[in-house]
Amino acid sequence: MSAFVPASIPVLRWAAARARLDDADLTQRFSKWPLWLTADAQPTLRQLEDFARLTHTPFGYFFLPEPPRLKLPVPDFRTLRDTPMREPSVDLLDTLYLCQRRQDWFREYAQMQGLPPVSLIGQAHVKSAPEAAAAILRDALGLSVAERQALPTWTDALRQLIACAEDAGVLVMASSIVGANSHRKLDVGEFRGFALADELAPLLFLNGADSKAAQMFSLAHELAHLVFGTKRRIGCRRPGAC
């Protein structure tokens, strides 16, 4: 006989929402999903484990009376319309944690190799004139107006700017999915890019699902934040796994 589990209804709803799964999708997978939400039925232990894997939710969360309040390690993201970030999806959080792990690894490597700090970081002051900050960024990237004008497409321009940023010591990542999971596509409507400032391992991530022109703007936007070295954009350490 299967054991039934009294899963928290608010947490079930929250887990489904942050995984961007609607009731129709879940009813196909779990026939009694509507009944779980009214307490007229409860999932079995195996069903709840399957649901936890499907929504990438720690199993223990389902025994909380209310969903946990998860905070973004980086509060200032570039969204589709530059609107304030609501509660992050599991895909965004996992992407952030992946970037932080890679940043941690490269910081340790840089320390072991005795690499110097990246000169780009924090070169401008928040009170600096925009023209002065732009000049600092242009000099650091070493990409002249003539070189930029010679690039025929947005794709070529983006590729060249990424190469210049990497030559300046910035780790640039771009992807349209979470890690290597092609079933977990990143939502441009949620975020377009972010930067994690660090003197040894500055990292910049672009949402690869965005257009090339938009990625170009996001890249410049996030590089500007690195030039200012804004403290609110310095990534926190990854929270402990639940």
Automatic annotation (TrEMBL):
<dbReference type="GO" id="GO:0003677">
    <property type="term" value="F:DNA binding"/>
</dbReference>
<feature type="domain" description="IrrE N-terminal-like">
    <location>
        <begin position="165"/>
        <end position="232"/>
    </location>
</feature>
<dbReference type="Pfam" id="PF06114">
    <property type="entry name" value="Peptidase_M78"/>
</dbReference>
<keyword id="KW-0238">DNA-binding</keyword>
<protein>
    <submittedName>
        <fullName>DNA-binding protein</fullName>
    </submittedName>
</protein>
<dbReference type="InterPro" id="IPR010359">
    <property type="entry name" value="IrrE_HExxH"/>
</dbReference>
<dbReference type="InterPro" id="IPR052345">
    <property type="entry name" value="Rad_response_metalloprotease"/>
</dbReference>
